[in-house]
């Protein structure tokens, strides 16, 4: 897929478990990851979690913007926007 599907996420590092849920007031999905936001560990956990939930190889998930913040723009290859939305809703 040229360019991939872009999604906006809010990430909460340091959670007790990995989880995703849709929050309409935030305008998108909130993803909880276990690692704290130190040394890029939370970003790596986010990439692994999205890869698993979306059924794509880790190399198909990229962080486009927000590497040092909690609000992230991600790009996913191999899935349409509708598939990404459906799969993240199923994972929540």
UniProtKB/TrEMBL annotation:
InterPro entries: DUF167 (IPR003746), YggU-like_sf (IPR036591). It holds the Pfam family DUF167. Coiled coil: none annotated. Belongs to the UPF0235 family. HAMAP family: UPF0235. This is Protein containing DUF167.
């Amino acid at each position: 897929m040229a360019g991939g599907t872009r999604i906006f996420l809010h990430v909460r590092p340091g959670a007790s478990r990995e989880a995703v849920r849709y929050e309409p007031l935030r305008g998108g999905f909130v993803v909880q990851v276990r690692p704290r936001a130190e040394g890029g560990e939370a970003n790596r956990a986010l990439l692994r979690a999205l890869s698993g939930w979306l059924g794509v190889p880790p190399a198909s998930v990229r962080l486009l913007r927000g590497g040092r913040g909690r609000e992230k723009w991600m790009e996913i290859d191999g899935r349409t926007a509708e598939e990404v939305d459906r799969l993240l809703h199923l994972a929540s």
